[in-house]
Amino acid sequence: MSESISPHTTIAQYTIVSKIGEGGMGEVYRARDSLLDREVAIKLLPPDFVNDEDRLHRFEQEAKVASGLNHPNLVRRTTPSY
């Protein structure tokens, strides 16, 4: 990956804590969700791939598969009530 995001960068309600790793589909970061007050992992598609329909499709498929995981150590995202 050509450009990494530095710690303390904020993306929406997420503040980047550290980089976890990277692979062919992007970089993964440990972040803090300020709305739900918890740690999360965020995967970002490299800028070079945002116009690549095949990569976007695969990235979305991966997100759908990950959202379907069910395990006692995983917490599903819920919409906060205010």
Topology diagram in text:
Elements: E1 10-11, E2 14-23, E3 26-33, E4 38-44, H1 53-67
Antiparallel strand pairs: 1-2, 2-3, 3-4
Description:
This protein is 18% helix and 33% strand. By secondary structure, the protein is an alpha+beta fold. The chain has a four-stranded antiparallel beta sheet, with no helix packed on it. The radius of gyration is 14 Å and the shape is globular. The mean pLDDT is 85.
* Average pLDDT: 85
Number of helices: 1
The description of the largest β-sheet is: 4 strands, antiparallel
Low-confidence stretches: none
Order of helices and strands: EEEEH
| Distance separating the two termini | 38 Å
Query: Mind telling me the C-alpha Rg?
Result: 14 Å
Structural class: alpha+beta
The main sheet orders its strands as 1-2-3-4
Helix content: 10-25%
Shape: globular
Which band does the percent of strand residues land in?
Answer: 25-35%
Strand tally, please? 4
